[in-house]
Write a structure and sequence with these properties.
Helices cover 88% and strands 0% of the residues.
């Protein structure tokens, strides 16, 4: 089972809303998680809290969007695999018919 199949966008968003960066870790994007873990506390302290809230929300939204995109990519890959398998079957059948005429 791949990372994309196990991640849920809602869980990623809640994790990043609680602790910015944790939702990104949950999604498997380590460096994005490190970024949010460093930037958000800096903005909390530097702006007296105002920009910290904004970073919390942005972190949660980006974690949600990344997890959702990963799920969509996994679904698209599965559909593409099914279509390719069907095409291979058709090609195989065509080759059988073609070799029978020779």
């Amino acid at each position: 089972m791949s990372i994309a199949e196990t991640n849920k966008p809602g869980v990623a968003a809640v994790l990043s809303l609680i602790i910015p960066g944790v939702g990104q870790f949950y999604n498997g994007t380590f460096w994005r998680g490190i970024f949010w873990l460093i930037i958000t506390p800096g903005l909390w302290i530097g702006s007296g809290g105002l920009l910290g809230w904004i970073c919390h929300v942005i972190s949660a939204v980006t974690a949600y969007n990344h997890a959702k995109r990963s799920l969509n990519d996994a679904d698209n890959d599965e559909k593409l695999y099914s279509a390719n398998a069907e095409l291979m079957k058709r090609e195989e059948n065509f080759n059988i018919l073609k070799s029978g005429k020779d």
